[in-house]
Amino acid sequence: MSRLNDILEFNRGFVQDGEYRKYSTDKFPDKKIAILTCMDTRLTELLPKAMNLRNGDAKIIKTAGGLVAHPFGSVMRSILVAIYQLNAEEVYVIGHHDCGMTGLNPDEVLSKAVKRGISEETLHTLSYSGVDLDRFLTGFENVQDTVKASVKAIRNHPLLPQDIKVYGLVIHPETGQLDLIAEDEDGVQQA
What we know:
This protein is an alpha/beta fold.
């Protein structure tokens, strides 16, 4: 059952009562940071609180696994827009323990897709067209290694300015504890 009517009803009151005012800010991140993280529901409020962030402090880019899967994909584009258009000066890649992308199996995902109505013909067409569904739907085994790989991909991107600092962290989704695993080139730890 859709939650749309409940959402719209709540929203009418939210706007009518002026609740939006306490979230008012502009499009530029006050702390001049961009964060790439996972879409995990446990991080929605926990991550900003664990980093002492308020509405308007950071650009937060969320994706499954919080990783840069392609150097010229939408995630990297979002990071570059945050830097060049919105004045971000630092990038934080933040993975988390117990991620749903850990051990993601493409065969299981495709089996569920077929059960939900995606035809075998569609899967065959995609494969024939050169789409590597196994690669596209494979997760990762180690969150620290994945964060380090994304940090490296960002740092080595040909369009990233040299003065941008890039850090890698892992957050515990229950306690909010942040562990630094890839410090900027000025620091001690390297990806």
